[in-house]
Design a protein that fits this description.
Layout (H helix, E strand, L loop, with lengths): L11 H7 L16 H4 L22 E6 L5 E5 L25 H14 L3 E9 L5 E10 L7 E7 L2 H11 L6 H12 L5 E7 H5 L13 E7 L17 H11 L8 E3 L2 H8 L2 H7 L7 E9 L5 E10 L7 H38 L8 E8 L9 E9 L5 E11 H20 L4 H15 L16 E8 L4 E7 L5 E3 L5 E3 L21 E4 L5 E5 L11 H13 L7 H12 L8 E8 L7 E6 L5 H15 L4 H21 L4 E7 L3 E8 L18 H9 L2 E6 L4 E8 L1
Antiparallel strand pairs: 1-2, 1-5, 3-4, 4-5, 6-7, 6-10, 8-9, 9-10, 11-20, 12-13, 13-14, 14-15, 15-18, 16-17, 16-19, 19-20, 21-22, 22-23, 23-25, 24-25
Helix pairs in contact: 4-10, 5-10, 10-11, 11-12, 13-14, 15-16, 16-17
Length: about 725
Amino acid sequence: MDSTSSPSSSSPFDMVSSALGRYIPRGGPVAAAGPAEARGDRTADRRPAGGPADGRQDQILGAVNLNRDLRVTRCNLDAPVFAGLDAVAGSAFVDLLPPGDVPTVTRRLRQVLETGEAHVARIQRLRRGDGSELVASLSILPAAVPQEGLTVSVIAMATRLHLYAAETAIGTSLDIGDTAQSLAQSLLAWGDVAAVDLDFAVWTGEGVTGQGQGRIRLRRAALVPDRAWPEGYVTPGDDLPSDASRLLAQAVRRDDAPQAIVIPDREAVERVLGSPRVIRALVPGDRSAGVACIPLVLDGAPPVVLGVAEVWRRADRPFHDSELLDLQELVAKTAHHVDLARQHQREHTQVLALQRRLLPRTGGDTVEIASVYQPATPDSAGVGGDWVNSFPLPDGRTALVVGDVVGHGLGAAATMGQLSMEARALLSAGLGPDEVLEHLDETVTLLDDTESGLTAGYSALGSTCCIALYDPVSHRVTLSSAGHLPPVLVSPDGRAGPLEVRPHPGLGAEFALREPFDVHTFVAPPGSLLALYTDGLVEDPAVSIDEGIGRLADVVSGVHPWDALQHAARHVVSALAPGRQRDDVTLLLARMIGYREGDTATWRLPARYDAPARARAQVSTLLRQWRTKESTRDNALVLVSELVTNAVRFATGPITVRLIRTGHGLLCEVGDTGNGRPRLGRGGLFDDGGRGLHIVHRLTTRWGVRWTDTGKVVWAEVAR
């Protein structure tokens, strides 16, 4: 029945066949084999005891060659373990499969034919002629050019070998679903159907404890084989019915100690499960009559049950004690892998929650914001330190921040969160972008300190950040960068290009190498589009970084003013980022809107004694034009008078008064050349100083100070 080609052949079938050794007889093609071989009778060519093959009765490797119609052309399945597998020439390979597995395996065979990519080491049951089944590991290999077809290598999974293979396969992934799937595939060697149900707390990464029975909630994590299941049966991702969860939990926690149980036949299964709904949910089919339930247990005091593994069998194959011991051994060695995946899931959830919290929510009334974050991989290893943030400042401006923290995982996420929150607090306090970067630079240095650092074992040195502040009245953007790639600006007429920002070292540079952060100022008229991003969006090994930025500018320039910005952001990322990028991708698009010309007014006044009266007159006239209600107008006039009086008293040079009508109030700003910071003190009853600020504090919803190149601006908001 065997037919291997000449030793010089390099086909997968011949390479697998050559590994079988002298035990397997070598001859002509299957079509030319003798009658005994054509019938699948392998006894005719077996060597007598004591022959060259003596001592090789544990042979477990075989090979089957298929044509493009998935029919057998050649076969090497002469080892005793394969007796009863009728793979004769011209027969369909799927005749060796249980009927329910035919669609799935056929799909895999066709996929290897079409793509040329091997499908390796899949646990599969094969049917013998007497109706019994053999558990084997199948690898589907494409034929070597110029041949056509497939070679299927078959490894019979002896129990101890299977235990060893399972122990090496399970735990190679920190994904809970993958770990459970590996366990279920391994359990299939002992039954017809295998399932793994895990406590819901394992999925969420929560700590699983010896909770009471009322809290038990199981979710199906894995199920094999892959086939079409009847309606009502619980498949991966589905929660088990509450009564089914409770029954399984009670079954494996008999006498308050987790232990394996066996329900031997269909009658007993129906008696234990009781409800027809539970039977439909848990029993995989009419043929599956008995089940072994083995708890996944973490050792401890008390022991903790993470879930339950179920192995279902037909009635004619009862579980033996030795098999139950093997199942318990395998599941016991898997429990700690599931717990490791649970811990990893918890970290993954924490990092994602932090990262999503930092994503922009809204840009306010003066800026339209859209952002995209795309991790390098879908698992937790891909959650990195890229972050973007945008938020309206109390003085009416909008802050746009993008950063790239070195590394991945919880350390990077913790640093990312700290830098983001610190940047927001400092910007809200009125500091300029260059001053904020100076503070972040110092923070990264402190975090890297082995003694005082908050992220031991992790270094954020070299992280980058770019901060832009948009003034919706003057339409000017003030920007500073620490080692970050330059933003791309698209003007209203569609011209696009990167901003000329002088390169600067990243955050945490050595003290001797530190330089002042440059401040870049430019005008962004209404309708302008500003793109801030991380290097994962533009880096490509095939092109230079400048070419990558140029491609970004070309794509962003195609965003029309009427395009929905979030949709446009996703389009930009899909056009530039490869399907399997090596780094996280982050993009922030900001469409400048600003205030309408009629909603703002600015006056410049000399710092003289009559400045408060002149300011009140100008503001009163404007508020009447805006039809502001009387109470708001009175409060605004008192507020402007106090702020201008304070500026005249403590500053020199001209005074700038600016009034802005916002959607929810009036924003009053008074700028001067002084460098003193107004402070609200706790004055006494007869103190004259500081009363003006107390009046400001009482009349406004909020107020503050921001610093400029020539002095300061005191701003305050009055509710309309």
